[in-house]
Amino acid sequence: MIDVNLIIERFPAFLGGTDGAPILSTSDGLQLTLELLGLSLVFGLLLAVPMALMLVSRNKWVARPVWLYTYVFRGTPLLVQLFIIYYGLSQFDWVRDSWAWEYLREAYVCAILAFTLNTAAYTTEILAGQIRNTHYGEIEAAKAMGMSKWLMMRRIVIPSALRRALPAYSNEVVMMMQSTSIAGLVTLADLTGVARRVFSDTYMPFEPFLTVAGIYLVMTFALVWLFKRAEQRWLAYLAPRKH
Amino acid sequence: MFLQGYLPSIMEGTILTLQVAVSALLVSVVLGLIGAMFKMSPSKPLAWLAEVYSTVVRGVPDLVWMLLLFFGVQMLINELFAQMGWEAPEINSFFAGVMTIGFIFGAYMTETFRGAIMAVPKGQMEAGLAYGMSPLRVFLRITFPQMVRFALPSFSNNWLVLVKSTALVSVIGLNDVMYRADTAKSITQEPFTVYAVVGGIFLAITSVSDLALKRLEKRYSTGVRETEL
After folding, report:
1. Span A10-32, pLDDT tens digits
2. A vs B: CB pairs below 8 A
3. What's the CA gap between B160 and B177, in Å, rounded?
4. Would A17 disulfide with which of A12, A58, B68, B71, CB 3.0-4.6 Å?
5. Which CATH architecture has domain B20-173?
6. What is the pLDDT of residue A14?
7. φ and ψ at A190, to 5 degrees?
């Protein structure tokens, strides 16, 4: 029922190979999925740290805009955000006339932008939650040492919050990895995009979609394992005593 | 005229989206309860089956599940009917969408309900059994009312994720809000306005749900003292 030969024959396509050309000769498939994931996670985290600090600020003019940002981005589907950026921006002449249009008309740039803004919103909330959870003793100790507010943030609050955010952040990373599958809906040839292409070529649904399902499953397990290792390293002090 | 009169069409699509989401939620709750019971059952094969279900489903993107199940099941039906010499029916895409999303979120609900059932003290169930109640009655009268409180936070989260996942169903041909938006976008040439309206609709749905579920959480936590720092 399932044509194993078709899977073997088409498998290189998921790793960037095309007809006759070797794997990784294009960035299609796995590589594109990993690029989209990696870049949006890095940019998202870089945005999330300052935004989390703003969100916990006691000045409401600083906290409110960030609150609104995370509220909107967490309350709407990522697909809508992607479409607003990819299709929506072309509505404005000033966007089309600007220097940025050269980039913003690329589906690749739009996808990274949408994924970055989305993951930044979730990560901000995760980090802000952990910053609020900082034990008061740590802050008192930092103040007693005469640290300025920023030095305390840099040396005490942020490193400790980042560590404690690891378990929740690992969920976010797995969710984000799976979310990159919608990139195919704006013409990109990520893993799911390649699978849909194979499907429309052959009209065989099981072979391409089971193949990508397997690849995603392996990636999910790999990420979960990596974060377990990271937690063992950076959260060892919170683990229950073994002896 | 705002969006050249396409707003009613988008609203109609919204109703369909909501129907899909609510029906899928019901399917996922049923699957989740079955999954949780299997997972906690003394029978090894049942527990293993539920474990595989919740792990594999949660490890693969929603979109891939939708494509796989929608096109895969349709092909199975086609082949089966061809062998019988009958003409194959087209799967109703509403039904397909509901079943697929329900199947996916059933896996998340399995974890939610398992955690919640385990949070209810075991003595409660034992007392029910000791009174001569049947296991089903123990579940309905003793376990369920008490597990709701523990299940609600994660249940709310699953619902919010489910609503947002519903945006994907136009991929399998449903005439939902995203599909209507696509048509409206091409004709009005105002893609930003169209998708901003759709985003606003989703934001309204998630906000209202969030408020309602918070109230429900309060209600089911009656008599539970909150810890204050």
Report:
1. 788 888 777 667 777 778 889 99
2. 108
3. 17
4. A12
5. Orthogonal Bundle (1.10)
6. 84
7. -80, -170
